[in-house]
Amino acid sequence: MTEKHPLADAARTLLKELQDQGKPVVGVGIGDGRIYLRATSRDHGAPAEYRGYEVQVLTEEGIKR
Questions:
Q1: Would you call 2 helix, strand, or coil by DSSP?
Q2: What is the mean pLDDT of each run of 10 residues along the chain (65 residues)?
């Protein structure tokens, strides 16, 4: 039986939640204990933290948080 990695699970769940809300989030990644979201506009709706992990938002203009 394989166990889910908590950070990866949080990243996938956050991506799905934001996409289900119609937010312009198109991708997700993890690294250094953070969640990285790829968004196509500033209206991404991502929280600063999710399940205790810092969330960084990447847009065409660079890192937003």
A1: coil
A2: 82 97 96 95 92 94 71
| DSSP summary character for residue 58 | E
Q: Which residues contact 29 (CB under 8 A, 6 or more apart)?
A: 11, 35, 36, 38
H-run or E-run covering 16? helix 6-20
* 3 state DSSP class of 21: coil
Could you give the C-alpha distances from 10 to 5, 28, 37, 62, in angstroms and in order? 9, 10, 12, 23
pTM of the full structure: 0.87
The first and second tokens of residue 1, run together, are 């039986």
Per the CB < 8 A criterion, the answer to whether 23 and 43 are in contact is yes
- Residue 17 has a pLDDT of 97
